[in-house]
Write a structure and sequence with these properties.
Strand content: 5-15%
CATH topology of the largest domain: Rossmann fold
Strand order of the largest sheet: 2-1-3-4-5
Largest sheet: 5 strands, parallel
Number of domains: 3
Shape: flat
CATH class of the largest domain: Alpha Beta
Number of helices: 21
CATH superfamily of the largest domain: P-loop containing nucleotide triphosphate hydrolases
Number of strands: 14
Distance between the termini: 39 Å
């Protein structure tokens, strides 16, 4: 546990006690903030995610129990330890019924306080490992990749909603960066298991020797270095959802082990003899063609059909380019707020260029480009000249351009003029001749369509 990454909040109207607890925990290496009343504490809880709150029970205006109830609405994962005088122990017990982890009586025993804090954080670490806390932190720090109104995206969302109502195994297919994990989270969030853990496993990141212990856990002494028993991902996910990402990279032994658990829900910890039964819904994802892997003998056919009960295919961004304006708008809103920058928008021409690019990295690549532009573009409107070199180079090298049904004649004319000036010639006299209009008419249309600034040479972002 890296204590420098643990955030703790101490709340007490006794300023001396509050400062003393804060200093004692800081010496242990934690990041510790302090508040002298519940209102101030709620403000801090709104700005930062705390692992643990140590709060007095009796405070003016708002009690520690009321603070606990309001704080849990902001973050269910934050643990509470109540500090109370002997006369208010019943209040602390009531707080534990509301979800507090434990309580301490005053005057405080600092040694017991440090031990209880460590015990609470270790409990949180076990429960939250690769689970709800990490997912909620990620949701706060990253915008969703699954945004759009196209038929392709609506089909994915509808299918996810349908399968969420059952416990059927789901296989999510799609290229890297399309948002497969987002679909898995959506299924979990809309299911009856939503209040239970969502455990993430990257199968490609686990070696064959460690895979069994990671999935099923191990008992003390099961192998060199197993100094204590450790529960596996299946046990952590009991009652909830286990998301197996990059399932196509699962080694042969792991495939056999997984198949057995899927069939009867039972397994043994590494080095153990007792049979453990779990109630876990498995959602798997892959960027590979598993059927081809089955044909090549690299993936078990029986496991493939066990996983392939309900397949969901997330389309690459190039197949639903009409969603790019909505995605860009969502990303701009998120990253301008995150980085405290002024609100920006893309010019129509910049958006059209983005829609013409094939995006090999899919929505994740688009998201990264938008974040980069939020940081590096200082104009309120992101123009074509502000876009990265690879975007503009692709557009200039393209032999043709496409128009979409529903575009107005003015939009088509604007696109044709811009394409002529970027692909064929930057000389406006020559461009006017190609377009069959006078140079004066071209200049007028450049001004009318707002292309004068858009086609002005700039340094690349």
């Amino acid at each position: 546990m890296d204590r420098s990454k643990i955030n703790i909040l101490v709340v007490d109207d006794e300023r001396g006690l509050c400062a003393g607890v804060q200093e004692a925990l800081r010496r242990e290496g934690y990041v510790v903030d302090a508040a002298n009343d519940a209102r101030q504490a709620l403000e801090l809880l709104g700005r930062r995610l705390y692992n643990l709150v140590l709060s007095d029970v009796r405070m003016p205006e708002m009690s520690g129990l009321q603070l606990l109830k309001e704080a849990r609405q902001k973050s269910r994962d934050t643990l509470f330890i109540l500090m109370t005088a002997y006369g208010t122990v019943p209040s602390a017990v009531e707080a534990m019924k509301e979800g507090a982890y434990d309580y301490l009586t005053k005057p405080l025993d600092m040694q017991r306080l440090r031990a209880l804090v460590l015990k609470a954080l270790e409990f949180q670490s076990v429960v939250s490992e690769n689970s709800e806390l990490r997912l909620r932190l990620k949701k706060r720090s990253e915008p969703s990749l699954l945004v759009g109104d196209s038929e392709a995206i609506r089909k994915v969302i509808l299918m996810a909603d349908e399968v969420a109502r059952s416990d059927v195994t789901v296989l999510i297919e799609g290229e890297s960066g399309t948002g497969k994990e987002i679909v898995a989270r959506m299924i979990h969030a809309q299911s009856a298991r939503a209040e239970k853990p969502f455990i993430f496993v990257n199968c490609a990141a686990l070696s064959e020797t460690l895979l069994e212990a990671e999935l099923f856990g191990h008992v003390k002494g099961a192998f060199t270095g197993a100094v204590a028993s450790k529960v596996g991902r299946f046990q952590l996910a009991d009652g909830g959802t286990l998301f197996l990402d990059e399932i196509g990279d699962l080694p042969p032994k792991g495939q056999g082990d997984l198949l057995r658990v899927l069939e009867d829900g039972c397994f043994r910890m590494v080095g153990g003899t007792e049979l453990t039964r779990v109630n876990v819904r498995v959602v798997a994802a892959t960027n590979k063609q598993l059927l081809e892997a089955v044909t090549a003998g690299k993936f078990r056919e029986d496991l493939f059909y066990r996983l392939h009960i309900v397949p969901i295919t997330v389309p690459p961004l190039r197949d639903h380019a009409e969603d790019i304006p909505l995605l860009v708008e969502a990303f701009l809103g998120h990253f301008t707020a995150k980085h405290k920058r002024r609100r920006k928008q893309f010019s129509a021409e910049a958006l059209q260029l983005c829609q013409r690019f094939p995006w090999p990295g899919n929505v994740r690549q688009l998201r990264n480009v938008v974040e980069r532009l939020v940081l590096t573009c200082h104009q309120p409107v992101v123009a074509v000249g502000d876009l990265p070199d690879f975007l503009r180079a692709h557009d200039q090298n393209a032999a043709s351009f496409s128009i979409r049904p529903g575009m107005t004649l003015a939009e088509v004319e604007k696109l044709l003029i811009r394409q002529t000036l970027t692909k064929e010639t930057s000389n406006r006299e020559a461009a006017a001749r190609m377009l069959g209009i006078s140079r004066r008419s071209l200049q007028y249309k450049l001004k009318e369509y707002g292309l004068l600034e858009d086609l002005k040479p700039r340094n690349s972002a």
